[in-house]
Specification:
The protein is mainly beta. It has helices at 34-50, 62-74, and strands at 92-94, 100-102, 105-106, 109-110, 120-123, 131-134, 146-151, 161-164, 170-173, 187-193, 198-203, 207-211, 214-218, 223-232, 238-240, 250-255, 267-272, 276-282, 290-298. The chain is 10% helix and 32% strand. The strands form five sheets. It has a seven-stranded mixed β-sheet with strand order 5-7-10-11-9-8-6, with no helix packed on it.
C-alpha cells in the first residue's frame, strides 16, 4: 500500500516516503492515514492469535513468543527424508554456534567431526615405574574400550598399571587376573578394558628378556619359550632356566657343529624339570662341543 507522500514529491518523480514537518520553517509533514496504522496493527494481532495467545496491551513479549511458538508448531522435526528442526540428545550435542557434535564413542573413543577415530598412543613411562600413562585423544573409560599402546621403555615392574588420558590407573593383565610381568622396549599391544582392568588382546610377548646366556619369551596365552647355550659341554652339567615353567617343558639340544637334519649331535638329558635340566651325554659323536638348546612349555 502506498501512503500519501509529502506534497509535490510524487509529482516530481521521486520515491515516496514519509518526512517530518517543521512548523517554524513552514514545512508540512507527511499525512498519516488510518490505514497506515490499522493495517500493521491487524497483521501483528493476527500473528499473536495464530499462536493461540490472547492479545494484551500490557504484554510487550507476545509477538516474540508467538513467532517462536509458530516456528515450533509449523516446522517439523527433521528426518532422513524431511528437513526440519533438530535437537540435542545423549548421543548428539549442539554447540553455541549451532555445530553438531557426536557425544557417543566407538570402542571407548569419542568421535569428532574434525578427525577420525584413533585408539593409539605412546607411553614414555620409565621401565621400572608401576604407573604407565598414555594419552589417546577422546578416550572414554567404558567396558569394552580398546587402546593400542607402544611402550617406549618397556616394563620391568611385576604389576604395572595403565592410565589412559587421565581416566585412572587400572591393572595391566594378560587374562583379567594375572598381571603382566614384563615386556620389551618399544613393545606394542592392544588392550581391552573389562570394567576393572586392562586385558591384553593381542600384540607383544608379555616378557622378552635375556639373562645368563638365555633368552625367554612369555606369551599372553601362558606359553613360554627359552633358548640358550651352555658353552663347552661337560658331562652332568646342569642348566637352570632363567624363568621357571609351570611343569616339565619339552627340550631339545644340539651341538653347535650340527647341520640341518643331522641327528648325530643330538644331546641326551638325564633330568628335565620345570626349573632346570641336566646334560648327560651326546647321543652320538664326541664330547667337548659347545651346544645350544630350546625349551618350550607353559609358564602359568
Amino acid at each position: 500500500m502506498k501512503y500519501a507522500p509529502p506534497i509535490g514529491q510524487e509529482a516530481q518523480g521521486e520515491e515516496a516516503h514519509y518526512v517530518d514537518g517543521n512548523p517554524e520553517l513552514g514545512i508540512l509533514g507527511s499525512p498519516v492515514p488510518a490505514a497506515a496504522i490499522e493495517q500493521g496493527q491487524r497483521e501483528l494481532l493476527h500473528v499473536i492469535k495464530q499462536a493461540g495467545l490472547t492479545p494484551s496491551g500490557e504484554d510487550l513479549t507476545q509477538l516474540f513468543r508467538a513467532i517462536g511458538k509458530l516456528i515450533g508448531d509449523k516446522v517439523p522435526i527433521a528426518t532422513n527424508d524431511t528437513p526440519g528442526l533438530v535437537k540435542g540428545s545423549d548421543a548428539v550435542s549442539i554447540g553455541e554456534d549451532g555445530s553438531i557434535l557426536l557425544a557417543g564413542a566407538v570402542d571407548g573413543v569419542r568421535f569428532s567431526e574434525s578427525g577420525g577415530i584413533s585408539r593409539y598412543g605412546v607411553c614414555d613411562s620409565a621401565q621400572a615405574a608401576q604407573a604407565k600413562t598414555v594419552t589417546i585423544p577422546g578416550f572414554r573409560l567404558v567396558p569394552g574400550a580398546l587402546a593400542y599402546v607402544r611402550f617406549t621403555h618397556g616394563n620391568s615392574h611385576a604389576a604395572p598399571t595403565l592410565d589412559v588420558s587421565g581416566t585412572g590407573a587400572k591393572p595391566l593383565t594378560i587374562d583379567g587376573t594375572n598381571p603382566i610381568p614384563g615386556y620389551g622396549v618399544n613393545a606394542v599391544a592392544s588392550f581391552m578394558y573389562d570394567g576393572a582392568r586392562y586385558v591384553v588382546v593381542s600384540g607383544f610377548t608379555v616378557d622378552d628378556n635375556r639373562a645368563g646366556g638365555q633368552t625367554y619369551l612369555k606369551f599372553p596365552n601362558g606359553s613360554m619359550i627359552i633358548w640358550g647355550d651352555w658353552g663347552t659341554f661337560v658331562n652332568g652339567q646342569t642348566v637352570t632356566f632363567a624363568q621357571p615353567f609351570q611343569a616339565m617343558p619339552s627340550l631339545i639340544g644340539y651341538d653347535n657343529e650340527s647341520l640341518p637334519g643331522n641327528t648325530e649331535r643330538k644331546a641326551k638329558f638325564s633330568a628335565i624339570t620345570e626349573t632346570y635340566f641336566t646334560v648327560n651325554d651326546w647321543a652320538y659323536g664326541s664330547s667337548n662341543k659347545t651346544g645350544c638348546w630350546v625349551a618350550f612349555g607353559r609358564w602359568r
